[in-house]
Specification:
The chain has one domain. The protein is an alpha+beta fold. The protein has helices at about 5-25, 30-55, 155-165, and strands spanning about 60-70, 75-85, 90-100, 105-110, 115-120, 135-140, 150.
Length: about 170
């Protein structure tokens, strides 16, 4: 490699990095954080509804907790809500990981004594290739294939919940 080729490549690289930074600065990170926190709150509300009969009869209890997250270069430091589910001496944690992750607009880890799952705020494969967070919906990864996402609903959550407690698979 000649010196001029090396210099040209470095110049090209720094120009492309500068362009990427300009595009990143065009994102309204405050809005992005607010949408992520709203989506997270909606997820936890859905889970509360799905588990409501078990809460009402005393089978389990739920607790929301504040969790500090830091996505310094984009969303900054902020507080998010997590959930802890107590059932028959066991605990399942629903912990937000963040919004700036590869392949999705947000991730919540569901951790139980026997299994873990990822809840991902993502775009369905058949949707627009230039998605926006407003079109994203919650999905759950399976234990068998973490790359395969299923739409999150009462049934898929219930199946994961049982596996986390050691009741299946």
């Amino acid at each position: 490699m000649t010196q001029s080729t090396f210099i040209d490549q470095i110049r090209s690289f720094t120009k492309s990095q500068s362009a990427n930074k300009k595009n990143a600065s065009a994102v309204d990170w405050n809005e992005r954080r607010q949408v992520w926190l709203t989506q997270l709150n909606n997820l936890l509300n859905d889970i509360e509804q799905w588990l409501k009969p078990l809460c009402e009869d005393g089978t389990l209890s739920l607790e929301r907790q504040s969790r500090h997250l830091s996505e310094r270069e984009t969303l900054g430091d902020y507080q998010a809500v997590s959930m802890v589910i107590y059932i028959d001496g066991q605990t399942i944690f629903l912990e937000p990981v963040g919004s700036i992750i590869i392949g999705a607009f947000g991730r919540v880890d569901m951790k139980g004594p026997f299994a873990d799952f990822m809840l991902l705020l993502a775009i369905d494969d058949d949707q627009d290739l230039n998605p926006v967070i407003h079109k994203a919906t919650w999905h759950i990864s399976t234990r068998r294939d973490r790359r395969r996402l299923l739409p999150l609903n009462a049934d898929t959550f219930g199946e994961a919940f049982q596996i986390c407690l050691g009741m299946g698979e």
